[in-house]
Amino acid sequence: MKVYLEVYGCTANKSDASLIKGILKDNNYKLVDKINNADTLILLSCTVIDTTEQRMLSRLKKLKNTGKKIIVGGCMASIQSDKVKSIIPNAGLLPPQYSHQILDVLNSKKTNFKLKNKTQFSKHYEDIFAPISIAEGCNFSCSYCITSKARGKLKSYPMNEITQDICSAIRQDCREIQLTSQDTSSYGLDIGKDLGELLLKISKIEGQFRVRVGMMNPYTCLKNIKSIITGFKPLNIYKFLHLPVQSGDDKILEKMNRKYLVKDFLKIIKKFRESYPDITISTDAIVGFPTETDDQFQHTVDLLEEVKPDIINITRYSARPYTKAKNMNGRVNTSIVKERSKYLTELCNKISKQNNLKHIGKKYYVLVTEKGKNNTYVGRSENYKPVVLNEKVKIGEIKKVNITKAANTFLVGSII
Questions:
Q1: Which of 311, 337, 357 is the last residue of a domain?
Q2: pLDDT tens profile 266-308
Q3: What secondary structure does DSSP assign to 62-80, as a single string?
Q4: Which helix (H) or strand (E) holds 260?
Q5: CA distances from 161 to 19, 125, 126, 133 (A)
Q6: Looking at the whole model, is its pTM more than 0.90?
Q7: Is residue 62 packed enough to be buried (19+ CB in 10 Å), middle (13-18) or exposed (0-12)?
Q8: Domain containing 409 — which CATH number?
Q9: How far apart are CA 227 and CA 293, in angstroms?
Q10: Which DSSP string do the residues of 95-154 spell out, in sequence order?
């Protein structure tokens, strides 16, 4: 049987995709890259915000017109199966917690879904990147988040199984290991371990590779901050911190049920920068959360101007089904949300460019990860800054580079 796989959304979905590919290849299924060549189509869906949901529904309608067998995985298969079935009544459903049971769904068996460690199954990777799940689910219920409803409660995977997954990826010539879960700093809270401990274990694996640590919730990061900061010390761990603040106002954070204060976020940033002065900081901000006033929005602006993150992911608030925030009063006018979002975007571009200019003249060891535009190559420095190289290099190599130029979102370097 020939199978076509289409993946949307977060790194966790990409990790599930590598698992599905591994299982299919182990069982002699052929993966194809064109819909017309496939017998079965698999779509790993995302529904994090409304516009993404609408995109998924539109895509399902187009896939239905092919007349082929369709399986829908990802978060929609778990939390919005009714919407999937309204478009494709006979679609197979593969909730993300059970991606390892792809064969049962593919063969139309009556499936008794059972939770298992995804780390126990083969994975297949097609490039230098290896998204590795270290846990499934989340123990928190942010009032706006549909993903925690879709992926269930926290289940951390054993360290030895995670390291085996990484060793397998390295044998497949992967060089950038992307650790993923809904909240990486929650890792181990259910099994008496912590993220810092895991990072130190991973760093000792033989081979040439680097590790990018995924998103952390400030609340759980603060619980084990000393250990986590120590875990970042090895040279093969990118000095990159993705710490979403979501709002610079404590009252809004309380309504979001984020369980931390602005001062906690600032404390974490300070401690990381004290240990790693050149660390790249990435954060997220939600604009227009219910009842957000002009003053509360300004608090977010003030915070970002103080912290000056390298990357700021801006999301306009989107009411999601099954969340507490959906039923909150005080919806912010759409035109105001757009205006705030535009202002923040301009601010972020300005901060990012200012930060990048500071890297000109510095020297980094860059892992070459992909081909760029116009015969260039792109790599990542030790602090995960994207660096464009004009020289011809090989993907997977590490080159010593001098930074010569800076743009809003990337650096330009020349090989020394």
A1: 357
A2: 999 999 999 999 999 999 999 999 999 999 999 999 999 999 9
A3: HHHTTTSEEEEEEHHHHH-
A4: none
A5: 14, 17, 21, 11
A6: yes
A7: exposed
A8: 2.40.50.140
A9: 37
A10: -GGGGGGHHHHHTT---------GGGS----SSSEEEEE-EE--S---TT-SHHHHH-S-
